[in-house]
Please model this.
Amino acid sequence: MKTEKILVSGAAGQIGSELVPALRQKYGKDNVFALYHRTVPKDAANAGVHVIGDATNKDFIEKLIREHGITTIYHLVGVLSAKGEQDPDLAYAVNMGTLKNVLDIARQLKNEGKEIKIFWPSSIAAFGPTTPRDKTPQRTILEPSTMYGVTKVAGELLVNYYFRKYALDIRSLRYPGIISWKTPPGGGTTDYAVEIFYGALKEKKYTSFLNAGTYLPMMYMDDAIRATIELMEADSSKIRIRTSYNITAVSFEPEEIAREIKKHIAEFEISYKPDFRQQIADSWPKSIDDSSARADWNWRHHFGLAEMVSDMLKNLGSIVK
Ligand code: AKB
Model:
């Protein structure tokens, strides 16, 4: 069997920092190249092969792929929803530009007889205010109100096009909010659901930038990493959706996660000071129908709200004092 050589861009990000070790465990630490932008995180320095460089530079990426005989790319680089609203030009340039580059490099290599498999993350941000918000279906209205969402819809259509026109094997998930303790998220709208744990552990209080009653679909990182790898390992005949799959685990609003935290930290109090991110959250689904992912490649989540909160407090509690 041919050895997989994997490249992960955005390796220092919330998902990248957990996907890289998971892939290294599976495929060997010398077969997973982590691409960092400027610096290598301390605990990653000796953990496996890594490269520092600019993911927006097409020549650099192409050289990297060719030199190391990369067979699979997890292209995670991206500017998230809230940061994207503060700098829409940057979000467009990074999110669309790097995706198009990676697809074109894969297309060129395919012409030379070298197949590259690609994972690219979409998001619930692909939906918008005109989308049905409860149990949002796989196929529905996609009219997002953020630049991040615009890049997700355009990206989904692009990867579908490259699959159909050039037979590239590109797979994608519409991630909900991801909750994790190893690396904090940055620049997202669902970030409150991670920040709340830092508030609870450090000060026993948290002021949420989203209002009470704001339901959003969420998932624990362990589930998100497993979903990503399972999707990539599924037999290609099972992947019937080549835009991006809806996936979800739980939906909750700030009061509900606060109540669950209170079961562990009785003094914990939540308060509310909604900002510009409220409008973004109000345009996104409250819950997601992920029955296509469940039927096609057997997606199942393992963590509900209670398990997630207890695991977060245990793990984050050991590093945050
Ligand atoms: C964000 O809040 O921007 C991200 C996402 C849902 O894609 N976490």
